[in-house]
Specification:
The chain is built from eleven helices and eight strands. It has an eight-stranded mixed sheet, sandwiched between helices. By secondary structure, it is α/β, with parallel strands linked by helices. β1 (9-12), α1 (18-29) and β2 form a beta-alpha-beta unit. The protein has helices at residues 18-29, 51-62, 77-91, 114-142, 153-157, 163-183, 208-211, 220-227, 263-269, 271-275, 287-296; strands spanning 9-12, 33-37, 67-70, 96-99, 145-150, 188-196, 236-240, 243-247. The radius of gyration is 21 Å and the shape is globular. The protein starts with 8 loop residues before the first strand and ends in a 14-residue tail after the last helix.
Protein backbone atom coordinates (compact mmCIF):
# COMPACT_ATOMS: atom_id res chain seq x y z
CA UNK A 1 0.00 0.00 0.00
CA UNK A 2 1.52 3.30 -1.13
CA UNK A 3 0.89 6.39 0.98
CA UNK A 4 0.32 9.51 -1.06
CA UNK A 5 -0.09 12.77 0.86
CA UNK A 6 -0.57 15.01 -2.17
CA UNK A 7 -3.03 17.83 -1.38
CA UNK A 8 -2.83 17.04 2.34
CA UNK A 9 -1.80 19.80 4.76
CA UNK A 10 0.22 18.98 7.86
CA UNK A 11 1.29 20.91 10.93
CA UNK A 12 4.36 19.53 12.69
CA UNK A 13 5.36 21.12 15.99
CA UNK A 14 8.93 21.14 17.21
CA UNK A 15 9.99 20.56 13.60
CA UNK A 16 13.17 22.64 13.52
CA UNK A 17 15.51 19.83 14.57
CA UNK A 18 15.64 16.13 15.36
CA UNK A 19 12.50 14.03 15.03
CA UNK A 20 10.23 16.90 14.05
CA UNK A 21 12.53 17.95 11.24
CA UNK A 22 12.62 14.42 9.83
CA UNK A 23 8.84 14.11 10.12
CA UNK A 24 8.35 17.36 8.22
CA UNK A 25 10.83 16.42 5.49
CA UNK A 26 9.29 13.00 4.91
CA UNK A 27 5.73 14.31 4.90
CA UNK A 28 6.78 16.89 2.32
CA UNK A 29 8.53 14.28 0.17
CA UNK A 30 5.27 12.34 0.06
CA UNK A 31 3.41 15.42 -1.15
CA UNK A 32 2.10 17.11 1.98
CA UNK A 33 2.18 20.86 2.40
CA UNK A 34 3.83 21.47 5.76
CA UNK A 35 3.55 24.14 8.42
CA UNK A 36 6.94 23.82 10.12
CA UNK A 37 6.55 25.00 13.70
CA UNK A 38 9.47 25.45 16.04
CA UNK A 39 10.04 27.88 18.91
CA UNK A 40 13.78 27.55 18.38
CA UNK A 41 14.54 26.92 22.06
CA UNK A 42 17.31 24.75 23.49
CA UNK A 43 16.85 21.24 24.88
CA UNK A 44 15.72 22.72 28.20
CA UNK A 45 13.09 24.92 26.55
CA UNK A 46 14.99 28.20 26.92
CA UNK A 47 15.57 30.86 24.26
CA UNK A 48 13.90 31.01 20.87
CA UNK A 49 14.44 31.74 17.18
CA UNK A 50 12.54 31.05 13.97
CA UNK A 51 15.78 30.22 12.13
CA UNK A 52 15.54 26.47 12.81
CA UNK A 53 12.09 26.25 11.25
CA UNK A 54 13.16 28.43 8.32
CA UNK A 55 16.07 26.07 7.55
CA UNK A 56 13.67 23.14 7.30
CA UNK A 57 11.33 25.13 5.06
CA UNK A 58 14.25 25.95 2.76
CA UNK A 59 15.11 22.25 2.52
CA UNK A 60 11.53 21.36 1.64
CA UNK A 61 11.18 24.12 -0.94
CA UNK A 62 14.56 23.28 -2.48
CA UNK A 63 13.32 19.72 -2.98
CA UNK A 64 10.21 20.99 -4.76
CA UNK A 65 7.79 20.91 -1.85
CA UNK A 66 5.64 23.53 -0.13
CA UNK A 67 6.19 24.70 3.43
CA UNK A 68 6.04 27.76 5.67
CA UNK A 69 7.76 28.45 8.98
CA UNK A 70 6.19 29.40 12.29
CA UNK A 71 7.66 29.95 15.77
CA UNK A 72 4.50 29.84 17.88
CA UNK A 73 4.90 28.52 21.39
CA UNK A 74 2.57 25.55 21.77
CA UNK A 75 1.87 26.75 25.32
CA UNK A 76 0.37 30.01 24.07
CA UNK A 77 -3.18 29.46 22.82
CA UNK A 78 -3.32 32.74 20.90
CA UNK A 79 -0.08 31.95 19.07
CA UNK A 80 -1.33 28.45 18.27
CA UNK A 81 -4.62 29.79 16.93
CA UNK A 82 -2.70 32.28 14.80
CA UNK A 83 -0.55 29.44 13.43
CA UNK A 84 -3.66 27.49 12.51
CA UNK A 85 -5.23 30.56 10.90
CA UNK A 86 -2.06 31.13 8.84
CA UNK A 87 -2.16 27.52 7.70
CA UNK A 88 -5.78 27.82 6.60
CA UNK A 89 -5.11 31.11 4.87
CA UNK A 90 -2.29 29.54 2.89
CA UNK A 91 -3.79 26.14 2.00
CA UNK A 92 -7.47 26.14 3.02
CA UNK A 93 -7.48 22.98 5.15
CA UNK A 94 -5.57 21.03 7.81
CA UNK A 95 -5.42 17.26 7.48
CA UNK A 96 -2.57 16.18 9.74
CA UNK A 97 -1.28 17.37 13.09
CA UNK A 98 1.91 15.90 14.52
CA UNK A 99 2.35 16.98 18.14
CA UNK A 100 6.12 16.67 18.53
CA UNK A 101 7.25 19.77 20.46
CA UNK A 102 8.92 19.18 23.81
CA UNK A 103 11.96 19.53 26.04
CA UNK A 104 13.51 17.97 29.14
CA UNK A 105 14.00 19.13 32.71
CA UNK A 106 15.37 15.88 34.14
CA UNK A 107 16.09 15.32 37.82
CA UNK A 108 15.23 12.82 40.52
CA UNK A 109 11.82 13.54 42.03
CA UNK A 110 13.31 14.53 45.38
CA UNK A 111 15.45 17.20 43.67
CA UNK A 112 13.00 18.31 41.00
CA UNK A 113 11.34 21.68 41.50
CA UNK A 114 7.62 21.99 40.97
CA UNK A 115 8.32 24.71 38.41
CA UNK A 116 10.31 22.22 36.32
CA UNK A 117 7.56 19.63 36.73
CA UNK A 118 4.89 22.08 35.57
CA UNK A 119 7.01 23.37 32.68
CA UNK A 120 7.34 19.91 31.14
CA UNK A 121 3.64 19.14 31.64
CA UNK A 122 2.76 22.50 30.07
CA UNK A 123 4.77 21.91 26.88
CA UNK A 124 4.28 18.20 26.26
CA UNK A 125 0.71 17.73 27.47
CA UNK A 126 -0.94 21.15 27.29
CA UNK A 127 1.00 22.02 24.14
CA UNK A 128 -0.54 19.00 22.42
CA UNK A 129 -3.94 19.88 23.88
CA UNK A 130 -3.70 23.47 22.62
CA UNK A 131 -2.74 22.44 19.10
CA UNK A 132 -5.29 19.65 18.92
CA UNK A 133 -8.07 21.88 20.21
CA UNK A 134 -7.21 24.50 17.59
CA UNK A 135 -7.63 22.04 14.69
CA UNK A 136 -10.35 19.78 16.11
CA UNK A 137 -13.43 21.59 14.80
CA UNK A 138 -11.73 22.18 11.46
CA UNK A 139 -11.20 18.45 11.08
CA UNK A 140 -14.76 17.74 12.23
CA UNK A 141 -16.19 20.09 9.64
CA UNK A 142 -14.14 18.61 6.81
CA UNK A 143 -14.87 15.07 8.09
CA UNK A 144 -11.20 14.13 8.00
CA UNK A 145 -8.23 14.36 10.29
CA UNK A 146 -5.15 12.45 11.39
CA UNK A 147 -3.52 13.42 14.69
CA UNK A 148 -0.33 11.99 16.19
CA UNK A 149 0.68 12.46 19.82
CA UNK A 150 4.30 11.84 20.78
CA UNK A 151 4.41 9.63 23.85
CA UNK A 152 7.54 7.89 25.19
CA UNK A 153 8.78 4.69 26.76
CA UNK A 154 9.44 6.90 29.79
CA UNK A 155 5.69 7.39 30.09
CA UNK A 156 4.71 3.85 29.16
CA UNK A 157 7.28 2.10 31.36
CA UNK A 158 9.02 4.73 33.49
CA UNK A 159 12.56 6.08 33.51
CA UNK A 160 14.67 7.25 36.43
CA UNK A 161 14.84 11.04 36.74
CA UNK A 162 11.93 11.71 34.39
CA UNK A 163 8.84 11.83 36.59
CA UNK A 164 7.68 15.06 34.93
CA UNK A 165 8.37 13.84 31.40
CA UNK A 166 6.90 10.40 32.07
CA UNK A 167 3.74 11.85 33.59
CA UNK A 168 3.22 14.14 30.59
CA UNK A 169 3.90 11.40 28.07
CA UNK A 170 1.53 8.90 29.67
CA UNK A 171 -1.14 11.60 29.88
CA UNK A 172 -0.92 11.91 26.10
CA UNK A 173 -1.88 8.25 25.78
CA UNK A 174 -5.01 8.91 27.82
CA UNK A 175 -5.77 11.94 25.67
CA UNK A 176 -5.34 9.85 22.53
CA UNK A 177 -7.61 7.07 23.82
CA UNK A 178 -10.53 9.43 24.41
CA UNK A 179 -10.07 11.64 21.34
CA UNK A 180 -9.93 8.57 19.11
CA UNK A 181 -13.36 7.57 20.43
CA UNK A 182 -14.79 11.07 20.10
CA UNK A 183 -13.31 11.63 16.64
CA UNK A 184 -14.42 8.35 15.10
CA UNK A 185 -17.75 9.65 13.76
CA UNK A 186 -15.92 12.52 12.03
CA UNK A 187 -13.24 10.31 10.46
CA UNK A 188 -10.60 11.74 12.79
CA UNK A 189 -8.00 9.14 13.69
CA UNK A 190 -5.80 9.77 16.73
CA UNK A 191 -2.69 7.75 17.52
CA UNK A 192 0.52 7.89 19.53
CA UNK A 193 4.10 7.33 18.52
CA UNK A 194 6.75 6.29 21.05
CA UNK A 195 10.10 7.07 19.38
CA UNK A 196 13.64 6.03 20.20
CA UNK A 197 16.09 8.24 18.34
CA UNK A 198 19.27 10.26 18.50
CA UNK A 199 18.05 13.74 19.38
CA UNK A 200 19.28 16.63 21.50
CA UNK A 201 17.22 15.23 24.35
CA UNK A 202 18.90 11.81 24.16
CA UNK A 203 22.51 12.55 23.28
CA UNK A 204 23.61 13.12 26.88
CA UNK A 205 21.95 9.90 28.06
CA UNK A 206 23.13 7.27 25.58
CA UNK A 207 26.58 6.04 24.53
CA UNK A 208 27.89 7.39 21.23
CA UNK A 209 28.18 3.96 19.60
CA UNK A 210 24.50 3.34 20.29
CA UNK A 211 23.37 6.73 19.03
CA UNK A 212 24.68 6.04 15.53
CA UNK A 213 21.98 3.38 15.05
CA UNK A 214 19.18 5.62 16.27
CA UNK A 215 18.67 8.01 13.39
CA UNK A 216 15.52 10.16 13.76
CA UNK A 217 14.79 9.42 10.11
CA UNK A 218 14.16 5.79 11.04
CA UNK A 219 11.20 6.90 13.20
CA UNK A 220 9.42 9.13 10.69
CA UNK A 221 7.95 6.25 8.62
CA UNK A 222 5.87 5.42 11.69
CA UNK A 223 4.44 8.93 11.67
CA UNK A 224 3.58 8.60 7.97
CA UNK A 225 1.81 5.30 8.65
CA UNK A 226 -0.31 7.05 11.28
CA UNK A 227 -1.35 10.02 9.10
CA UNK A 228 -2.25 8.24 5.88
CA UNK A 229 -5.83 7.84 4.72
CA UNK A 230 -5.87 4.19 5.85
CA UNK A 231 -4.21 4.87 9.21
CA UNK A 232 -5.45 3.00 12.28
CA UNK A 233 -6.78 4.80 15.32
CA UNK A 234 -6.03 4.35 19.06
CA UNK A 235 -2.64 2.80 18.35
CA UNK A 236 0.54 3.32 20.35
CA UNK A 237 3.25 2.68 17.75
CA UNK A 238 6.81 2.32 19.01
CA UNK A 239 9.66 2.99 16.60
CA UNK A 240 13.45 3.07 16.71
CA UNK A 241 16.51 1.87 14.78
CA UNK A 242 14.28 0.54 12.01
CA UNK A 243 12.14 -1.58 14.35
CA UNK A 244 8.46 -1.13 15.11
CA UNK A 245 6.31 -2.43 17.94
CA UNK A 246 2.85 -1.76 19.39
CA UNK A 247 2.27 -1.00 23.06
CA UNK A 248 -1.03 -1.80 24.76
CA UNK A 249 -2.73 -1.05 28.05
CA UNK A 250 -4.33 -4.37 28.86
CA UNK A 251 -6.82 -5.60 31.43
CA UNK A 252 -6.41 -8.98 33.11
CA UNK A 253 -9.40 -11.22 33.76
CA UNK A 254 -8.67 -10.85 37.46
CA UNK A 255 -10.59 -12.50 40.30
CA UNK A 256 -13.84 -11.94 42.17
CA UNK A 257 -13.70 -11.67 45.97
CA UNK A 258 -16.95 -9.88 46.77
CA UNK A 259 -17.31 -7.59 49.79
CA UNK A 260 -16.50 -8.01 53.44
CA UNK A 261 -13.91 -7.24 56.09
CA UNK A 262 -11.71 -10.14 54.98
CA UNK A 263 -11.40 -8.95 51.36
CA UNK A 264 -8.36 -6.73 52.00
CA UNK A 265 -6.45 -9.67 53.43
CA UNK A 266 -7.57 -12.08 50.71
CA UNK A 267 -6.67 -9.59 47.98
CA UNK A 268 -3.18 -9.05 49.38
CA UNK A 269 -2.65 -12.82 49.29
CA UNK A 270 -3.95 -13.19 45.74
CA UNK A 271 -2.48 -10.20 43.91
CA UNK A 272 -0.45 -12.63 41.83
CA UNK A 273 -3.68 -14.13 40.51
CA UNK A 274 -5.05 -10.63 39.80
CA UNK A 275 -1.93 -9.85 37.75
CA UNK A 276 -1.96 -13.15 35.81
CA UNK A 277 -2.01 -12.14 32.14
CA UNK A 278 -3.56 -15.29 30.76
CA UNK A 279 -6.61 -14.13 28.82
CA UNK A 280 -5.93 -10.42 29.24
CA UNK A 281 -7.54 -8.01 26.79
CA UNK A 282 -7.32 -4.50 25.35
CA UNK A 283 -10.60 -2.82 26.36
CA UNK A 284 -12.55 -0.99 23.69
CA UNK A 285 -13.22 1.84 26.14
CA UNK A 286 -13.02 2.67 29.84
CA UNK A 287 -16.52 1.27 30.29
CA UNK A 288 -15.17 -2.22 29.62
CA UNK A 289 -13.52 -2.38 33.04
CA UNK A 290 -16.81 -1.79 34.82
CA UNK A 291 -18.60 -4.22 32.53
CA UNK A 292 -16.07 -6.95 33.33
CA UNK A 293 -16.38 -6.33 37.04
CA UNK A 294 -20.16 -6.45 36.92
CA UNK A 295 -20.11 -9.65 34.88
CA UNK A 296 -17.89 -11.24 37.49
CA UNK A 297 -20.29 -10.08 40.18
CA UNK A 298 -23.05 -11.87 38.22
CA UNK A 299 -24.97 -8.66 37.56
CA UNK A 300 -26.66 -7.71 34.30
CA UNK A 301 -25.06 -4.73 32.55
CA UNK A 302 -27.81 -4.24 29.97
CA UNK A 303 -29.57 -1.45 31.86
CA UNK A 304 -26.56 0.16 33.54
CA UNK A 305 -25.71 3.59 32.06
CA UNK A 306 -22.16 4.08 30.81
CA UNK A 307 -21.58 6.87 33.34
CA UNK A 308 -21.71 4.21 36.05
CA UNK A 309 -18.33 2.89 34.97
CA UNK A 310 -16.45 6.19 35.26
Amino acid sequence: MTINLADRVAIVTGAGTGLGREHALLLARLGAKVMVNDLGSDVNGRGGSVSAAQKVVKEIVAAGGEAIANRASVTDTEQVQSMVADTLARWGRIDNLVNNAGFLRDNSFSRMTLDDFRAVIEVHLMGAVNCTKAVWDIMREQQYGRIVMTTSSSGLYGNFGQSNYGAAKMALVGLMQTLALEGAKSNIHVNCIAPTAETRMLESLVAEDVLCTLSPSAVSPAVVALVGENAPTRMVLCAGAGSFEAAHITLTTGIYLGAGEEVSHLLAQQLGDVANRNGDSVPASGAAQGALELRKARLSVRNVPEQFYA
